[in-house]
Design a protein that fits this description.
alpha/beta; Aspartate Aminotransferase, domain 1; Aspartate Aminotransferase, domain 2; 2 domains
Length: about 475
């Protein structure tokens, strides 16, 4: 049975987050236009009116140019970029003497930067959790090309968690212990929060992996929009971020926050404008920059990077703990109410993938609707019907195949048998794998979410799918994961 409605001013914990409701009415009132409901914060945050106005004021009151020069407009732009670097380190409590900020196009670009430059080899393997975004999974191809071993740590159980004992076993596996004494043994990569299930993996794994001689790449893109990351307390070698996930604007800018000692071990396979101190065509040599700019290819988005500093100040003013409390309350309420719904047959309305409670999870809920006979509602139908109802949510596998395979019970043995067949379409693949749907439904809360958003989605779920038999409708083809 669902718990009482705790999303009211009568609940002190929820009332403590009323600052967000005040901002929703002023800075985020565009969210309530045209009957729309935004439930895809795991995909992108929503910008506040103040962020856009600040950007406009800056560009209309000053003049800025390419910072790769020494003229006044160039210096003005460079000053703002360096100020943003300091603000980022301060926001995450990172020591500037220990950490550097490298601007990238997004978190994926940060992952690629590490993957292409990390010294993989027979003595430096890659260990990953199966629960990882494809931008992290792709690093395995750099490892493979370098002849390095790589190993996945599986997700287990309905909660789709990774067991610490499995992490330790992977880090100490004999076939991965080829490094010489005193040499870094390899790279361990995992997400602080799953973009598929919302699972929050223990940040203590950073120290665990380092004690076993590994560098750590922490994908924090899904974690930091609603949770505090203290790089003074845990100190991974590499942290990957996308700023639009935190506060919606600007897009096209991410960051790699990297320990300076770890940067010194990276070897980039190429150079570009802005990354070198000197280069000769006829002499066939070059000298890289000796700071973070050695990793920033070409001209930075110098007109957008100052917006990152404004956004961090905006979040800081609201309070990351207030945001966390709001998202935690909404997530718990929706989980409890969704899982309490039953068809007339007694079958549940939803099947949740990942934790069914707020225990060690973030504000992302992945699930499928079920028909009264217990079969899954095709997520393509949900995509069409939720769109018609004005709901912005996500369907598919969310670029996280490892968590998806765990959710749908796809084993390595079944995959091996399937890949031996002549499969030409996604639908053929699903039929052979005996997977009834091509993906899940994902609802995610964020900075500007409120009780009305959660209630609107619950009402949609109940009115549209409860006690509803399978509709006879044509579904569009599946285009991609």
């Amino acid at each position: 049975m669902a718990r009482p409605d705790l999303l009211t001013a009568d609940n002190p914990a929820y009332a403590a987050t009323r600052r967000i409701d005040e901002l929703r009415a002023t800075e985020y009132n565009h969210l309530d236009q045209d009957g729309q409901v935004y439930l895809d914060y795991a995909g992108a945050g929503v910008p506040a009116r103040a962020q856009i106005e600040a950007h406009h004021r800056r560009l209309t009151s000053g003049l800025y140019s390419n910072p790769h020069s020494e003229n006044p407009t160039s210096v003005a732009a460079g000053t703002l970029v360096e100020s943003a670097r300091r603000a980022i380190l301060a926001f995450f409590n990172a020591d500037p003497a220990q950490y550097a900020v490298i601007f990238t196009p997004n978190a994926s670009g940060a992952c690629r930067l590490v993957g292409e430059a990390y010294p993989f080899g027979r003595g430096t393997p890659l260990v990953l959790t199966a629960d990882n975004h494809n931008s992290v999974n792709g690093i395995r191809e750099y490892a493979r090309t370098a002849g390095a071993a790589f190993r996945y740590v599986p997700v287990r159980g309905d909660a789709l968690r990774v067991e610490q004992s499995d992490v330790e076993a992977a880090l100490t596996r004999r076939s991965l212990r080829w490094g010489r004494r005193g040499q870094r043994r390899g790279l361990f990569a995992f997400p602080a929060q799953s973009n598929f299930s919302g699972v929050q993996h223990p940040l203590e794994w950073v120290g665990l992996a380092q004690r076993h001689g590994y560098d750590v790449l922490l994908d924090a893109a899904a974690f930091v929009p609603t949770s505090r990351l203290d790089l003074g307390a845990i100190q991974p070698e590499f942290v990957c971020l996308s700023w639009y996930k935190l506060f919606g604007y600007p897009t096209g800018i991410g960051a790699l926050i990297a320990r300076r000692d770890a940067l010194a071990r990276l070897r980039r396979p190429w150079f570009a404008g802005g990354t070198i101190r000197a280069v000769s065509v006829q002499g066939d040599w070059y000298e890289s920059m000796d700071d973070e700019s050695a990793f920033e290819d070409g001209t930075l988005n110098f007109l957008g990077i100052p917006d990152v500093e404004f956004g961090l100040g905006w979040v800081d003013n609201i309070g990351i703990d207030v945001i966390h409390a709001r998202v935690d309350a909404l997530t718990g309420w929706l989980l409890d109410n969704l899982t309490a719904l039953r068809h007339r047959t007694g079958e549940p309305l939803v099947r949740v993938y990942g934790p069914a409670t707020n225990d060690r999870r973030g504000g992302t809920i992945s699930f499928n609707f079920l028909h009264p006979d217990g079969t899954l509602v095709d997520e393509r139908l949900v995509a069409a019907e939720s769109t018609a109802a004005g709901l912005s949510l996500r369907t598919g596998c969310f670029c996280n195949p490892g968590a998806g395979e765990g959710a749908f019970g796809i084993t390595k043995w079944r995959l091996a048998r399937t890949l031996m067949r002549n499969i030409t379409t996604v639908d053929e693949y699903l039929d052979v794998m005996r997977v009834p749907t091509g993906g899940a439904i994902r609802v995610s809360f964020g900075l500007a979410s409120n009780a009305a958003d959660a209630r609107r989605f619950l009402a949609f779920a109940e009115s549209t799918y409860l006690d509803r038999d399978r509709p006879d409708v044509a579904l569009p083809p599946r285009l991609r994961c």
